[in-house]
Amino acid sequence: MNMKKIEIEKKLEEIFKDRLLLDTADLVSYGFDASFGQYMPEFVVQVLSTEEVQQVVKLANEYVMPVYARGASTSLSGGALPVKGGIVMDFSQWDDEFEIYPDDLIIKTRPGVRTGRIHELAEKHNLMYPPDPSSSVVCTIGGNLAENAGGPRGIKYGVTKDYVIGLEVVMADGAVIRTGGQTIKNVTGYDLTKLLIGSEGTLGIITEATLRLIPKPIDTKTAMIIFEDLYTSGKSISKILTSGVRPSKMEILDHNALNKVEDYAGLDLPRDAAAILLIEVDGEPDNLIKELNIIKKALKEINVENIEIAESKEAENKLWQVRKLVSPAVVESGYTKISEDATVPLSKIPEMFKKIDEIKKKYDLNIVVFGHAGDGNLHPTINTNMRDEEEVRKTEDAVEEIFNYAIEIGGTLSGEHGIGVMKKAFIKKEMGEDGVRYQQMIKRALDPKNILNPGKIFPEEGEERLVLRNE
């Protein structure tokens, strides 16, 4: 062990005592997340206060050692992977500090609090925190903030950044700053809050967030629309959104995803359908059927009439089970699940479906497609045998083609998963050399020693393509 590492270990031990983890088994367990690759950190610390975070960052800054913030490790882009070694800060134990202020319609929370607990607390006061990532039962709000997480309600209510009005942040030099505040309106100075949300922990480490709440809708109603061809399903999305109704959720499953769920759960789904669309409307109970009727009328103009409306809450919950079960159904069907989230303009969804089907046949891969139809955020998901080198190579080629095509038709690499390590090889294709250069200038200005989550977002030399394994 070199002298630098010995000194860092001694100082970390003084701060954390038994919350400093050094055993090989612990280090290995903090070296992966829900994406791919295995990286070994040198130290793991379980932080419980802003002061502790500040001390770690000051230490990392002094010794120029990488530091990685980590929550529940549900990232699908490798957002928290310690790719350069260094110190992992585990926030998952810091989950007992969050408080609601119902009269102000805000919640103050620490980053280790699970998103699902925030939903529960808001609902007790008849309020709602709209961002609802599919992993909300297990993921932490800190990860949501870092990746600007979305979810099914994004179509109507937006994503994480739309509900963050204030932050406490430890910067790369150890300074603690506050951005925004406790008011909905705030245009004082640069909007550092929005800059930090979605920056994947590369510009600062969030230690507190003030979240905006809204009144919880009184009621909801759900319908399932069944399609005989993918083109019409894609065309229907724009038709619905221009009908005068704004659904609160609009989720699509292709034929393959639908059948995976049916194999897994036996929900009596239409196996022959090319795709299904699940739509939820929310608001005043008397308006919900009227809104669904407007949607039915709009769809009738393009000869879509196979629409089933849930007649009870039980039936409604059953329909949403279909969407929730896609990921476990894909996992159950075998091997490693690679879930992407290329996002395309609404009018290009049919073309994207067609392209993915071509890629599936070209590489002979098991690909299903589902996602948030209302904002074009699709999740092409591949089952891959990571022990089969040839299949891994084909998967890497297929994912690269999916990303390239999404960019070609005006889309983006990520709608909600972030760039992390999984997509950084492609960022210049979307943003261009100058676009990336200016973002890197921001990174260098706020983190001149490159200690905050290094190895993410921006490709380094030799990182020109996706690599699923780092061995």
TrEMBL record:
Its cofactor is FAD. It holds the Pfam family FAD_binding_4. Keywords: FAD, Flavoprotein, Oxidoreductase. Residues 36-216 form the FAD-binding PCMH-type domain. It is an enzyme of class 1 (oxidoreductase). It comes from the Bacteria. Its EC number is 1.-.-.-. Gene3D superfamilies: 3.30.465.10, 3.30.70.2740, Vanillyl-alcohol Oxidase, Chain A, domain 4 (1.10.45.10). One of its GO terms (molecular function) is FAD binding. PROSITE patterns: FAD_PCMH. InterPro entries: FAD-bd_oxidored_4_C, FAD-bd_PCMH, FAD-bd_PCMH-like_sf, FAD-bd_PCMH_sub2, FAD-linked_Oxase-like_C, FAD-linked_OxidoTrans_Type4, Oxid_FAD_bind_N, Vanillyl_alc_oxidase_C-sub2. Belongs to the FAD-binding oxidoreductase/transferase type 4 family. This is Glycolate oxidase, subunit GlcD. It comes from Mammaliicoccus stepanovicii.
